[in-house]
């Protein structure tokens, strides 16, 4: 286990080095363009060259890259052009807001999808299996912007139960966070439920499950002790990989409900051309993607010790 973890950690570090170097080369190889973004399109060449000199951009490329990586490791991502403040002061609160949204989503989605998937997979071809499969396909096929519009029309404009935005200007509010979480759960649970259903159905036809049933072991114990653990391997991968989607793929939901999260920050930075915000968001998103894969690999061995990665 320790050797596996060490190998995966080295792989994760190598990927981060490659991605960070590529990112730096794309955004900061043209020094005058960077100065133009910071100082504005009407700045003179002399002003841009003076800014480059004062901010160390006349140093060799590799030296600037090492300095940039060192600053990023300490949380210094530069100065935001749009927000007129250090990028870290904007990034971490937005990342925390998305973490709250993702945590609530996971808290509701995981029990719902696993329960429905197990129920459907226990009796393949039954009415409950058909109902879960149809419901999962139906909810997953509807994009977030469509379901957000539909549920807003019901809960905001028709019933008047919930606010239409989730800006959280007065602090955290369950009423404001409900619709973004609800839309994400409705969209996201179906795929995990179907993966769980397929995995559970395959496990239920295996020889050791049939042997356990024939030996007279209580059916509930067969499901909980023998079938469920092996059936969770595939859904576990799907759930972990959803961390990537929750970090930067929820832009539609965050923009629709005016929720100040990481995805909306990334979109605003891209639209405004805030180069240092884009760099910071990209680094964080790649780190979460690589780290989630690391967690997924370690989780494989915990769920099934017979699985080993080389």
From TrEMBL:
Residues 95-296 form the ABC transmembrane type-1 domain. The chain crosses the membrane at residues 9-27, 99-122, 134-159, 171-190, 231-259, 271-291. CDD domains: TM_PBP2 (cd06261). It is found in: Cell membrane. GO terms for cellular component: plasma membrane. Keywords: Cell membrane, Membrane, Transmembrane, Transmembrane helix, Transport. It comes from the Bacteria. InterPro entries: MetI-like, MetI-like_sf. The keyword Ubl conjugation does not apply. It holds the Pfam family BPD_transp_1. Signal peptide: none annotated. One of its GO terms (biological process) is transmembrane transport. It is a multi-pass membrane protein. Belongs to the binding-protein-dependent transport system permease family. This is ABC transporter permease subunit. It comes from Sneathiella chungangensis.
């Amino acid at each position: 286990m320790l050797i596996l973890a060490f190998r995966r950690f080295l792989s994760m570090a190598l990927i981060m080095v490659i991605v960070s170097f590529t990112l730096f080369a794309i955004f900061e190889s043209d020094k005058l363009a960077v100065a133009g973004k910071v100082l504005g399109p009407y700045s003179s060449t002399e002003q841009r060259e003076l800014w480059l000199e004062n901010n160390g951009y006349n140093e060799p490329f590799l030296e600037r890259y090492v300095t940039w990586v060192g600053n990023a490791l300490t949380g210094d991502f530069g100065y935001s052009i749009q927000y007129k403040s250090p990028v870290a002061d904007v990034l971490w609160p937005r990342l925390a807001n998305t973490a709250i949204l993702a945590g609530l989503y996971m808290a509701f989605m995981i029990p719902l999808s696993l329960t429905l998937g197990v129920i459907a997979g226990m009796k393949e071809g039954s009415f409950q299996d058909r109902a879960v499969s149809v419901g999962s396909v139906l909810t997953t096929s509807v994009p977030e912007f469509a379901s957000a519009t539909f549920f807003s029309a019901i809960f905001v404009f028709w019933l008047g139960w919930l606010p239409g935005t989730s800006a959280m200007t007065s602090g955290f509010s369950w009423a404001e966070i409900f619709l973004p979480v609800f839309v994400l759960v409705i969209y996201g649970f179906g795929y995990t439920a179907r993966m769980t259903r397929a995995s559970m159905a395959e496990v239920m036809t295996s020889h050791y499950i049939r042997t356990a049933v024939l030996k007279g072991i209580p059916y509930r114990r067969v499901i909980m002790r023998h079938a469920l653990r092996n059936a969770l391997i595939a859904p576990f991968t799907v759930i972990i990989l959803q961390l990537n989607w929750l970090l930067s793929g929820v832009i539609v939901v965050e923009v629709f409900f005016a929720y100040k999260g990481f995805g909306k920050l990334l979109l605003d930075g891209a639209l405004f051309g805030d180069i240092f915000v884009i760099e910071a968001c990209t680094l964080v998103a790649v780190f979460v993607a690589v780290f989630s894969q690391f967690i997924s690999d370690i989780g494989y061995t915990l769920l099934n010790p017979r699985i080993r990665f080389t």
